[in-house]
Amino acid sequence: MKKKFIIGIGGVTNGGKTTLTQRLIKMLPNCCVVHQDDFYKKPDQIEVGEDGFKQWDVITALDMEAMTNTIRGWIENPVKFARSHGVNLARTDDVSEPEEQTHILIVEGFLLYNYQPLLDVFDKCYYITIPYEECKRRRSTRQYTVPDPPGLFDGHVWPMYLKHRTMMEASHLTVDYLDGLKTKEEIYNQVYEDIQSNFLNRL
Ligand SMILES: Nc1ncnc2c1ncn2[C@@H]1O[C@H](COP(=O)(O)OP(=O)(O)O)[C@@H](O)[C@H]1O
Ligand SMILES: O=C(O)c1ccc[n+]([C@@H]2O[C@H](COP(=O)([O-])O)[C@@H](O)[C@H]2O)c1
Question: Which atom of ligand 1 is nearest to the CA of 22?
Fold first, then answer.
């Protein structure tokens, strides 16, 4: 029986992906995480568009090859990956050896489902959405390593979100939508129970 599961938590910027991911990794056994934001290229490698904005919200702004290699490293040896990332593995005195246990990888990011080589690695694809107004409000309070210049949200971030979401929906990937307007607790409970029943209780 399969014992390695990769779960995607994608969706709009400021939808609550990181918040949900942090809660899940605390509660799920043998759970590692890969954050897409960690694979951003350096600011001087980000293209400037005709609109004058640095194009942060496109797949070429990210080193997707490096991210894919990191995920492949987990697939090859989740125990080694967990140990080298400081993730505690379940105790082995009352269960099987670490190699025999179930392992979960959460991959979190805003452009997860727009990179063809990764589409077939996911056992489950979640996608958090929030409406324009709420997204703009949350984003206005957020500090990124490179702060948003005036007009970036309406001129680049939101249009790119709509474009990539449309492309994802055309790809026939099976995606479970999560309503990011629900409370953090509600979203977490929904996903935790879903993962439990789909991947953990069946073992
Ligand atoms: N369900 C929620 N309801 C209200 N605010 C939320 C919710 N989830 C996250 N937030 C807030 O929204 C902001 C962005 O959350 P974050 O998890 O960093 O989003 P993302 O990783 O999708 O960009 C943070 O200020 C966070 O506290
Ligand atoms: O992380 C960075 O270095 C960074 C630098 C510039 C911009 N970002 C923004 O990060 C956003 C994606 O991350 P998130 O957590 O909001 O989903 C995306 O909308 C980018 O515009 C992120």
Answer: 17
